Amino acid sequence: MTQQQSPALICMGEPMIEFNQQPDGRFLQGFGGDTSNAAIAAARQGAATGFFTHLGDDPFGHALSQLWQQEQIDTRLVLHKENQQTGIYFVTHDQQGHHFSYYRAMSPAAQMRPEDVPCEQLKSAKILHVSGISQAISPTASQAVITAIKAVKSAGGMVSYDTNLRLRLWSLELARQTIHDTIGLCDIALPGYDDACQLTGYTQPDDIADFYLGLGVKLVALTLGSKGTFIAQTDKRKLVPSYRVRAVDATAAGDTFDGAFLAELLAGRDPFAAAAYANATAALSTTAYGAVGPIPKRQAVEAFLSSQH
């Protein structure tokens, strides 16, 4: 994709700098932020992708812009704000899994307002991708997400929403109200199982799918970790199995699924085939440390899928 093409997929949210603990205790600097990870995953599968956010006019912010440009992600909707600092986070690992420590208070993305949304430019997107984190970082950012959704929908585009529940950012009550209201405006719901149980009160995939379809979405992709992904539409549903790999770090696996799944939908695949491909992409992303580095490109995913038959 060249910088002058209109991206089919535009992701919106808060990108961050990552410091991921390695087996020897040192921290490897990388990149993160859920919708940024999804954008990179989509771009690496060949989707024409763009990003909308505000960053600090600092070395970390410019490093993120440079990363996206290297990944051939359109950065025309990325603004660098003077005297503001790009957010960072640390990932540590223990017997219970991976843990996040965030340093992001009043980041440039959190200070975004509805009037900052480039509605006309967003209208060219076939899919806008947002998440619960995109809304949890501040009330004004939450309203900016709503403004972006309405702009894309008014032009006939679709919107996908990953719940990505982070209770350190907001209360469960506020998260439920905001996420359910917003998903009702969207077309594709991308909840993780643990999130969905807390948000909906249900534990069975069929019940969770019914809940989100009842809010008005057309497609639910409920990720179930090692059990696979439960895909549900109003007339058809199916569990799409996962792939076994030697996993070492699950950071951004869900984001990787999102990006690959949306890339496959944009390429014309049906949701069940898209989920199978995205399951493989997400599985491969867990075989090394960090959010961005291990996200595989299409050639690697196709080679892995060929080896499974």
Overview of the structural elements:
The chain has 309 residues and is α/β, with parallel strands linked by helices. It has a single domain, classed as Ribokinase (UDP-N-acetylmuramoyl-L-alanine:D-glutamate ligase, 3-Layer(aba) Sandwich), CATH 3.40.1190.20. The chain is 38% helix and 23% strand. It has eleven helices and 13 strands. Strand 4, helix 2 and strand 5 form a beta-alpha-beta unit. The protein is globular. The mean pLDDT is 93.
**Beta-strand residue fraction:** 15-25%
- What is the H/E order? EEEHEHEEEHEHHEHEHHEEEHHH
* First-last Cα distance: 32 Å
Q: CATH superfamily, please?
A: Ribokinase
Radius of gyration: 18 Å
Biggest beta sheet attributes: 9 strands, mixed
Total individual domains:
1
Strand arrangement within the widest β-sheet reads 5-4-1-8-9-10-11-12-13
* Weakly predicted, low-confidence segments: none
Instruction: Give the total of beta strands.
Output: 13
Helix- and strand-based class? alpha/beta
User: How would the global form be characterised?
Assistant: globular
- The CATH class label is Alpha Beta
Predict the CATH topology: UDP-N-acetylmuramoyl-L-alanine:D-glutamate ligase
- How large is the count of helical segments? 11
| CATH architecture heading | 3-Layer(aba) Sandwich
**Percent of residues in helices:** 25-40%
What is the mean pLDDT? 93
